[in-house]
Amino acid sequence: MKVNHVTILEYKYLFDSHIKNRHAEILILVNDLDFDIAFPIIARLNHVVRERSLKNYLDEITFWFGSKSPLVDIYAQLIAQGYDEKEHSSLRILNIWSNLTLLQSFLEVYKNSTGSKNQNININNTHDRLLKAYLLINEEYVANFNSQKVIASIPNGVGLIMKNGLIMATMLLPYHDLNHIDAADAMIAQFIKAVYFLQFAESNLPKALTDFLASYGVSTWQDYMKAIFPIVGHALQNNKEGLGYLTINSENPHAETSRKFLSTISIESQNGDFSQHDFILPRSKPLMQINMDKYLVIDNLLIYNKMYNSLFFEFKKVLIDNPDILGKVDFKGYLNGHFSESFLASKVLDAVFENSKYLKFSGEEIRKVHAPTFKAEPDYYARNGTDLFMFELKDTLINGTTKQSFNVELIKSELKSKLWFKSINKKGEIKEEPKAIRQLQNNIRRAAVNKLPFDSDLEYKFLKVYPVLLYIDQSLSTPGINEILQQWFAEELGHDKELGKVQDRFDIMPLTMIDLDTLIIFQDDFKNGKLKLEELIPRFWGYKQGLIAIGLNNINQAIFDSNISFGAFLRLNRKTRNTPKLFTSFGRLLFDKNNQKSD
Predict the structure, then answer these.
(1) What total of structural domains would you count in the chain?
(2) pLDDT per residue over 112-126, tens digit each?
């Protein structure tokens, strides 16, 4: 990761005009455009930004208008005049935040459209109006991504590592989960999680699963996956210059199920609800329907995410229609406790430690034997001699408004309440409900005083303890967040008297945040011993500290570089990976006629 000194081009410097109500002007510019031209433009913008294929602003202008358009020279002159004092190599137009904001603005107009086209708008005019709208959005981008304003909002006395963590998290959180994820990795991980969820539902929510499948005209979850996966995978393989189309074979026996799935994630003019928070509409509608069996892919990554994420919303609807299934139990809370933190975490971590000599227990295994006398157990526990791992998994989401706020205190407060502790008023008394950081600390303390009933052979042992916070929401991979949480974790350890007593035999590593998708993608390397967490985690923190040491002449740059997430670090060091065997085995499970039942 490197600090890139880029100047984002803005409307006001090209046209010497200050628009007071930018949002209203953007909507005017995109109103009545030819949707058949505009949506493919947006699809291609997302593609080139993710691929980073355009090297300078002249490439971007040429890409936008086409090399033969006279508007290329016109805009090149406007930029040269408006930015005559700037180094031209640093000038850029395109970025993922403005891409999605343009799409969001376009959808805001499109949902109220009658579908008629303005015949007076030609292709060049459409491109010109969209670029003007984009440059206005860039003004908002520059105003929001103001590092000096963010730095000024951080209170005095905050340590340098925490300060840089807060700056990076605040600046990058709005779009990091949409811009730094490998599309192939996302497809594989979302597919595997979707299959795990459907297997879980088959055993634990059979009535809800039956109703869900009935809405798609199928009787088994295998048939549902057969209908959706090939067309989703097609989006990755068939994408020419950013224009990808999903086509349904009408003769396929699963064609109608495929249509129903794609219709739920496709843009339609009658979309009613609209929210500007966190690109909700683009996230939920990453396709545009061309005809009954053809769809334009607006964004590959968002399609892959829907393979798993859409299941929550569809099952939630089924449960609302059938309140007797869970009664008054909150569905999100039920899923967190029974699926994410138990079933899913166990599946993934069992694979990571499968061929090791680790003594290991899932949270569910601990509860079955030791509840209710032993409570607040770790979500997963593993020990091999002196190496001890404590895992907490949090299937928590950062609120969309918070993500897009660019507000240090708001982001810090939400991270604190969801991952450190939450203050709750109980009968007039303020109680602190422990979250992941304190839960890890509490269970490490239990190990220090030999109070873990499932592993009671810890007294007098010299242990290297690895506290790990697993998470699902890729927003938490944003650089800076691990540093913030580690500072809080270190603060807790510093005040813990019991752990202070055993510091001569307990070597507690820094808190490491790991996204579950990374473990899913690299599970085969963990199984065959090519990767070991007990080796990777010290290297991860050594890499961070090494970058700081190397960058003593420019400490801010060094700390910026060192804020890499664990998943990014692993991919940096292991540049190639094989497709997980679990992915191919699930494929055989789906498409082998002899395997029609889940494991």
Answers:
(1) 3
(2) 665 555 555 567 788
